[in-house]
Each structure stands twice: as structure tokens, then as C-alpha cells.
Amino acid sequence: MTERVVLAYSGGLDTSVAIGWIAAETGAEVVAVAIDCGQGGEDLDVIRQRALDCGAVEAVVADARDEFASQYCVPALRANALYMDRYPLVSALSRPLIVKHLADAARYHNATMVAHGCTGKGNDQVRFEAGLAALFPELRVLAPVRDSGMTRDKAIAFAEEKGLPIDVSKKSPYSIDQNLWGRAVETGFLEDIWNGPIEDVYAYTDDPAEPREADELVITFQAGVPTAVDGKDLTPLQVIEELNRRAGAQGVGRIDMVEDRLVGIKSREVYEAPGAIALIAAHQELENVTVERELARFKRGVDQRWGELVYDGLWFSPLKKALDGFIAEANAHVSGDIRMVLHGGRAVVTGRRSDASLYDYELATYDTGDKYDQSLARGFIDVWSMPAKIASLRDQKLS
């Protein structure tokens, strides 16, 4: 029986060529799997037909936008996930979703191998292969670009020789990956880290320096999940799309950073994540209102570790699963409304309200009606500072 390979298929040059390349190298049949994570571009039916025209025995396409929003973006939001305190895990979040669909397709089509188009320099090779190892450890993994010398010039020559139905004449100066949660841009002149990004790098955001009216909105959360904008009930997908549109129009979410890749090198990346950045800012502020201090302090460390695990391709790891449980519990009371102003590239919280608020006006106010007994502070400070006082007296005695 002929072996089958499930290929993570994008519809572009490299993965289209990989269909025939893999067949020629291994003698296996190729099943192409394309997943819509909100990246836009070509229609899924067009992509499916291209895979078949390039020699795939079957092509599976899936609109996974709702799944991506609710099961991947929302957990990242509840974890305030920002790798190196800045990057909202745009590409890293979509990879476990794709891996899940690849593993499902491999089981359904009785495949013995899975293939991806990653290079040996990036994080994605790790994310794909670590995820597959967790979900379907019996599968072998093929990486033609990394392991079989399938360079771009060879891919173009192969496509022309075989008459494959793909445009090989256009080449963007950038390497771009995008989905519902944001857009990542690298390579080209951006590899010189002294060069500033120019306006044609951006597609999700308008120039924040252009004069325009500010946009004010209210985001509603239930247990850390965004459920409405300006009082209109929306699904997580619709909330993210709405924030991408409105925050993007104000230039919110542009990030230019030198990033520590998992494989050990530093890489210059330019990101756009208008919806993600606005939503994380809103969620963090609602946590400030509703989460007790010691829990909030501990959660900040958990959030950082959660983001590192996802960045490092360990979405399906036992530790990440355990942290999910903690983050869900910590979000139990993160419900309410956040008012936010979007303008000039910034998302600024200007109001917050919650039935689960821990903010007590009568304790916080300095005006008449203050019910805080300030006389208690003296004894509290004496007890709080006692260990430091005792240590200082000991040091003076011994010096």
C-alpha cells in the first residue's frame, strides 16, 4: 500500500512545489491541508484546487477562524500573553491549531508522515514538530526546505519544469505571516536593525501620525472573555475583527523589536496586532479592578511563563495545561466593562466598572465619608518593618 504524507499547505510557491517534490523523493501520496486562521488572501476553494492541480491526491481546507479566536486567542488574552513583554504570539498561536488539524487529517487518511515548509532557522519547525510529537508521536516528519535542499531557486525551476499553476514571478521583499491575531513581517531591508520600517511594511494599521478623530469604545468581558463592544453582543471572532478594524484605523499595535528566537539567534521582527494589543490592555486593567493583590502578583509570573511555553512550541505540554487551569480560575471574576480611547497609535483605558470590583470608594476616598481608619497604619508599619529593623540592629552590633 502506498504511504501517505499530510502536508501543511499554504497555497504558496514552496508548499505547492513540495507536493510534487515529496512525491518524487518518497514515492508517497500527498494530502494537502490548508487552514484559515483569519489570514485573508485567496478563497479556500481556490487553494484546494491548486493543491489538487499540483498533484495532491486529496486537499482538505478548513475555516477555523472561530476555533482560532475562541480556543487560542482568548486563552492568550486571559494570560495577557506578551513574549518579551511585547509580542502577542501572533504566529505562535496559530501553529498548534494547524498541528491539531494535521494530526486529525493524518489519522483520517491513514498517513504515516507529516510535512511542513519551515526552514531550519525559525521557531515554527519546533512548534510543528513538538506539537505533532505530543498529539501523534508515531508520525514521521518531513521538512523539505530544511532537510532536502529545496531552495527557492530550485522550487521555481521545479514549478516551471512541471508547469505548476503558481505565479513564481512575484517575490515580496518581506517574509510575512498573518492571521486574525496579527501580522508578522521580517527579512529584506529589515534585517539591518538600524533601518527603520517604512510605511509599506504595514497592512493591518494606518499611520498613527496622521491626524484623525479619536475613537472611544466600551469592551465587555465575562470571566476574562470579551463578549461585547459598545453594548452589542459579539462572538470572540467578531470582537477581535472589530478591534482589528477600529484599533488598526488608529495605528494601534505596531511593534518593532529584536526578538530572542527559540533556536538561539536574535531576529528583528515587525508586528502589527491592533486588536490583540487593545484587548490585552483592556483585560489587564479589568484584572487590576477585580483580582486580589497576591493572586495578581502570582499571575503575572504565570502569564509570562505561559507565553514562553506557547512561543517555544509547548502548547500541548503538561505544564501549559496546568497553567491553563490556574489562569481560568484567576479570571473567574474578571467581568465588567472597560472604556477605552483609541488614538495616535495608543489604546488608553479611561473608565472601568464591574459588579465584581474590589475597588471600594469609601476606602479609597480622601474626602468626607472616608471609612478607612488611618490610626491603624502606625501599628501595621511597625510590624511590617520589624524584620528589617531587627536585621539592621544586628548589623550595627556586629560592625
UniProtKB/TrEMBL annotation:
User: From the Swiss-Prot or TrEMBL record, what is one GO molecular function term?
Assistant: ATP binding
* One Gene Ontology cellular component annotation held by this UniProt entry: cytoplasm
Q: In which pathway does it act?
A: Amino-acid biosynthesis; L-arginine biosynthesis; L-arginine from L-ornithine and carbamoyl phosphate: step 2/3
EC class name: ligase
Name all Arginosuccinate synthase C-terminal domain ranges. Answer: 174-390
User: What biological-process GO terms show up in the record?
Assistant: argininosuccinate metabolic process; L-arginine biosynthetic process; urea cycle
Q: Which domain of life is it from?
A: Bacteria
| Positions of L-citrulline binding | Y87, N123, R127, S175, E259, Y271
Q: Is Signal among this UniProt entry's keywords?
A: no
**Subunit and interaction comment:** Homotetramer.
Report the sequence similarity comment from the record: Belongs to the argininosuccinate synthase family. Type 1 subfamily.
Name assigned to this protein: Argininosuccinate synthase
Lineage here is: Bacteria, Bacillati, Actinomycetota, Actinomycetes, Streptosporangiales
